[in-house]
Amino acid sequence: MTRKSRSIRSRMARSTATHISVKGLSLTEDILGHLNLGDMAFLELMGRRPSAKESVIFNAVLVTLVEHGLTPMAIVSRLTYLGAPESLQSAVAAGLCGMGTTFAGTAEGAARMLHEGVSEAVDADLREVACRIVAAFKARKAAVPGIGHHLHKPVDPRASRLFAIAEEQGYRGRYVALMEEVSLEAERVYGKPLPVNATGAIGALCCEMRIPWQIARGISVMGRAVGLVGHLVEEQVEPIAAEIWLRAEEEASAEPMP
User: Fold this and answer.
1) For a pLDDT cut of 90, what percent of the chain falls above it?
2) 255: which residues sit within 8 A by CB, 6+ positions away?
3) CA 104/CA 221 separation, integer angstroms
4) Considering only Cβ atoms within 10 Å of each terminal Cβ, which end of the chain, N or C, has fewer?
């Protein structure tokens, strides 16, 4: 089939003059007034409405990374808004660009690690699998995704709460168990507290709900986008970006400010 003769298809949505269909559901009759934002996100990603238990877990996952104070992403958003107050969306986008292997984006790496680990460990002891995972990361001098936090130790309360919610809903399975074993093994190998962090818990719960690991970072993006808009709302009312800029310039300069 040539490029020009190939059909362009999308099953996301279809609109007519009187009807809007999203993933086979009527936006006005089946979705509006029936699905909350988290359930709508689940529908977009998975092509179906979540079960009641999945809804509880997925919404908790989305909420977890909405807010964490003046993180680098929030600071970048505020500074971008200072320079371009006419483009709130650009400020949010600038902050989201900082979501990677250091901040918030490690849910993807954790989910992939767990997915591959459990797939290889059909009959194996999860403790043995965790030992192999940590050894592999250590050998290539790479950080193990989903564990450790500069502030939350010896326990990240967000991870503990997410795992408790998962247990309440019957979704605390082998992926959660492996994530906890990885944390314990990493603490033994590196000799310091390396608790399961929020993104590690999110990666584990994505796997428990059979959400592809490739989507995990996108879920973090959804939650953090809400938080960044919140920071910009505060910046409009109680601006601090200019102070951050001027103080950084003053303290970084070798010459005293006049």
Assistant:
1) 84
2) none
3) 8
4) C
